[in-house]
Write a structure and sequence with these properties.
The structure holds 2 protein chains of 2 kinds. By secondary structure, chain A is an alpha+beta fold. Chain A is built from 10 helices and 21 strands. The longest helix of chain A is centred in the N-terminal third of the chain and has 16 residues. By secondary structure, chain B is mostly helical. The two termini of chain B are 31 Å apart. Chain B has one domain. In chain B, strand 1 and strand 2 form a beta hairpin. Classes of the chains: A alpha+beta, B mainly alpha. Chains A and B meet through strand 17 of A and helix 3 and helix 13 of B.
Chain lengths: 482, 422
């Protein structure tokens, strides 16, 4: 029913297209960046903005909501957001480990492995935040075919410092954060299909037609994200992102890092999405100038090659965008020692020989020439008992307890079984590596706890596979360069 | 008070062990046989750290010790090994005084006999008691308070005995099972009457008053604990509730944890109730049967606790084994002491072995370890049953046989049997 106006538009392709209903804007963008280790990072972002919309007041949850009529905004997601009165929502489903040292910062932060869901909701007496959080999890797990239902209260925390509200804060109710993550959740094609259904043009037209599940899920790193933010001046913004890091050196026959859209995605863009107000492919050009890019880009902005695909432009859709390094015979991986791309590198390791005891060690390296002060947040499953009194901070085997300040440790509460241990790093002197080490003790799980974590794409029993820790986050205090 | 010369030697040895840096001490602290989640030194330090950082130590499930220990080690004295050595010494001294009271000897007199040396050595050098003490497990303090309560009760000092047992109950709630026989010792005498059973001699009417006094001391301690934690009652659930609700399923030598790892949550409350009530049913029959010798009844109940406690360490059967030294009159009547010894040896060797095989090396599994703790339970049970038997058998007495030959040529023997009570 909703597709009828879209088909009418597709029939008259030459007319300049704009959103049928004033108040909804859709734009899509693909960013491609060749990385220094021969890989190619691609970031799709599909943004739908409901202009002037306001999140539902949780105090009005008992009354009948106004009817929702959307042309571009997905109705299923809109209904979930209104039903649970969600102000801000972030869901990411990722697979792989983002290599910050070689790949730099991702275009969309939120690359922790597995499923991570966090939401800001207003408090209300009609239904509590926790009830709505549970309803949200179940609804989203049904919508995305992901087992988000197991992100229950035993894994939910409220780390407000590390996950603040990205948009504006509505004034109608005090807001609370709920955050949960399931690092062992696998992402597969069953998650991509409902993701594409949220787009106005689905996978028939526009940039989403490039999304070939065979290729995307074969990438070295892939992840999708759903972000709903409310900005007071623009309205409710839904951003769907899909990032994938491909490895043409591995997949190509000649071990070359040349890439083109056909090689990466095995698909081409037939037609552009008519309802998109802007649709473009941006290639971030590498610094060395010995590459070649076809077709010659018309717009050159500062190291970026922008190909505008929207139907309003006069530019014809390129059948293939290719970048090659003709002077290279085969790709030579840059030899170590390599300076990491990001100012901070973090390594987390477990030392120990037994299954019950060990040392959890976090090693933070400051690659920049000046001191950095950052916060470190770690959420540890309750299975592990951390002996916080054994916490040691060392630089080059010298104990420096003054470098750690503002240590906040939240032991597991009876409702939530996870521990929250934000550590505030006071400062890390330049070009040095700092180690935190804490002893931990793995406890004994009861039978019902072992079988509660279920995965969909993997049939093996969780208990034999070992435990996965949720990814820690580093929050920088002075985000000037980071 | 004159102590036998050999008392100072084991005590000095024990103090020396506390002060010297031993190579394997870190291993001992992590050993699950020597300390349980309720008594572990690691958790004590964690609780002290949490207190220093203004975090309630009781909400995380890591800390189960009593607030009194928390305040002792955070304000008065840090948790040094020398405190455990002193506590061991006090326990040995208390055991000696119990022996003297039982034998009717004046506690001031120093009859330096070999038996007293043996008693002191059996307490201080018993590996079941020495190793948990070196591992800085707070079960040493629990044992010391139990022995102090018995000492004061044997010497007739009412208030000190009730205060000591109130401390013991505060540290571990399962010591409440020892309350009734201690009250009985207070109102009667500790002298051995095993061989001549008689109805209870003491005045039963005093017992409710003594119980009231105990309750008063116990409430004072509870109030002190509440003041220490600032009016927060979460410590009750974490420290006493742990024995009842079994929140932590770390493997230990007790018989409880294995059941609860395999059990659905639905059945947990029922089985927790069954296991706790099981301990209660031993009190009255033992106290009624051994009403002529309540000290022996206490000894038997210590044995019961040493098998069926929720979070068992080796120190609990260790107390039972060391206390057997103050009842030499039953030693002759034990039927299978060697089997008990061998079972204990078997269990003591198997428990750490299976634990390492399971958790460190991953070659065994929980069943191996639980089988070893079942052997430990059997060892304790064999000792307890034997002690019960001997305590009752001694009352029957020995048979003395006379045989006389008739002198007048008839080839016959006349046999008289006479039962002599000692």
């Amino acid at each position: 029913m909703r597709r009828t106006p879209v088909w009418i538009f597709l029939a008259c392709l030459c007319t300049p297209s704009f959103a049928l209903y004033p108040g909804e804007i859709y734009r899509e963008d693909l960013r491609i960046q060749p990385l220094r280790d021969g890989r190619v990072s691609t970031t799709f972002s599909f943004v739908t903005v409901l202009e002037g919309a306001v999140p539902r007041n949780p105090m009005a949850l008992g009354q009948v909501d106004e009817s929702q009529h959307y042309a571009l905004f997905p109705l299923t997601l809109g209904q979930i957001l209104r039903e649970h009165a969600i102000t801000e929502l972030h869901l990411t489903l990722n697979a792989g480990r983002w290599n910050y040292d070689n790949w730099g910062h991702p275009h969309e932060a939120g690359v922790g492995t597995g499923a991570e869901l966090w939401a800001w909701m207003g408090a209300s007496e009609i239904t509590t935040v926790d009830e709505r959080w549970s309803g949200l999890r179940n609804a989203l797990s049904g919508l995305f075919c992901a087992s988000l239902g197991s992100l229950d209260s035993r894994r939910t925390l409220s780390p407000t410092v590390a996950f603040p509200l990205s948009g504006s804060t509505p004034t109608f109710a005090p807001h609370e954060l709920r955050h949960a993550s399931l690092p062992s959740e696998n992402v597969c094609t069953e998650n991509l299909t409902p993701f594409l259904k949220l787009l106005p043009c689905k996978s028939h037209a526009g940039l989403a037609s490039l999304l070939n599940p065979q290729k995307v899920f074969d990438a070295d790193w892939h992840g999708m994200g759903i972000h709903v933010i409310w900005k007071e001046d623009t309205g409710v913004e839904l951003k769907l992102t899909l990032q994938a890091v491909f490895n043409p050196v591995r997949t190509s026959t000649g071990k070359r890092r040349d890439w083109n859209l056909q090689l990466l995605f095995d698909r081409s863009i037939e037609r552009s999405c008519p309802v998109a107000s802007s649709s473009s492919i941006t290639v971030i050009l590498p610094e060395e100038k010995d590459y070649q890019i076809i077709p010659e880009y018309p717009a050159h902005v500062d190291g970026l090659a922008i190909y505008d695909l929207s139907s309003s432009s006069n530019f014809t859709i390129p059948s293939n965008i290719a970048m090659s390094w003709p002077s290279e015979h085969s790709f030579q991986y840059p030899l170590p020692p390599l300076t990491p791309v990001t100012p901070i590198s973090v390594k987390r390791t477990i030392h120990g020989t037994t299954q019950t005891r060990g040392i959890l060690s976090v090693s933070v390296t400051n690659n920049s020439p000046q001191e950095i002060s950052a916060g470190y947040l770690e959420m540890v499953p309750a299975l592990l008992t951390l002996w916080m009194h054994t916490l040691k901070v060392e630089i080059n085997s010298q104990i420096r307890s003054d470098l750690l300040s503002g240590l906040k440790y939240h032991p597991p509460s009876p409702q939530s079984n996870d521990r929250l241990s934000p550590l505030d790093v006071a400062s890390c002197p330049h070009n040095s590596t700092k180690d935190h080490a804490r002893n931990f003790h793995r406890g004994q799980q009861s039978f019902s706890e072992i079988h509660r974590t279920s995965t969909r794409c993997d049939e093996r029993l969780g208990s034999t596979r070992g435990r996965v820790f949720p990814a820690p986050s580093i929050v920088s205090r002075y985000p000037s360069e980071l | 008070m004159n102590t036998p010369p050999a008392f100072s030697v084991p005590v000095c040895l024990r103090l020396l062990l506390a002060v010297l840096p031993l190579p394997g001490q870190d291993l001992l602290k992590h050993d699950h046989q020597l300390s349980s989640p309720l008594t572990s030194y690691l958790r004590l330090n964690e609780g002290l750290w949490l207190l220093d950082n203004n975090i309630n130590p009781y909400i995380g499930g890591a800390f189960h010790h009593s607030p009194l220990l928390l305040s002792l080690f955070s304000t008065i004295v840090p948790p040094l090994p020398i405190i455990w050595a002193v506590s061991d010494g006090m326990g040995a001294w208390a055991l000696l005084r119990i022996w003297r009271a039982r034998q009717g000897l004046s506690s001031q007199n120093g009859t330096r006999s070999n038996v007293e040396n043996l008693i002191v050595s059996v307490y201080l050098l018993n590996p079941y008691l020495l190793l948990p003490s070196l591992a800085l497990s707070t079960s040493t303090f629990e044992n010391t308070f139990t022995l102090l309560a018995l000492m004061f009760a044997s010497e007739g000092k009412v208030s000190s005995a009730l205060l000591a047992i109130a401390f013991a109950v505060h540290l571990t709630p399962s010591s409440i099972f020892l309350l009734l026989p201690i009250l009985m010792v207070l109102v009667s005498s500790p002298v051995s009457h095993l061989a001549s059973p008689h109805p209870f001699h003491g005045s039963l009417r005093r017992i409710p008053f003594l119980f009231g006094e105990f309750t008063l001391y116990w409430l004072v301690l509870v109030g002190a604990a509440c003041i220490i934690t600032g009016g927060n009652w979460s410590w009750v659930r974490a420290s006493w509730g742990a024995s009842l609700t079994l929140p932590d399923l770390t493997p230990n030598p007790s018989l409880w944890w294995y059941f609860f790892t395999e059990m659905f949550d639905h059945f947990r409350p029922f089985f927790l109730m069954v296991f706790s009530v099981h301990l209660v049913i031993y009190i009255l029959p033992i106290c009624v049967k051994f009403q002529h010798d309540p000290l022996y009844a206490t000894f038997l109940l210590v044995g019961v606790l040493g098998i069926f406690k929720a979070y068992l360490t080796l120190a609990d059967p260790g107390l039972f084994l060391s206390m057997i030294s103050i009842f030499p009159e039953v030693h002759g009547y034990l039927r299978h002491p060697i089997i008990t010894t061998l079972l204990h040896l078997h269990a003591a060797l198997l428990l750490p072995l299976q634990h390492v095989l399971w958790v460190s090396e991953g070659r065994g599994n929980a069943n191996f370890y639980y089988a070893a703790s079942l052997v430990m339970g059997m060892a304790g049970g064999a000792g307890l049953v034997d002690a019960c038997w001997a305590g009752m058998r001694i009352a029957v007495g020995d048979a003395k046989v006379w045989a006389e030959e008739k002198v007048d040529g008839e080839k016959g023997k006349v046999v008289w049997w006479e039962v002599v009570q000692q």
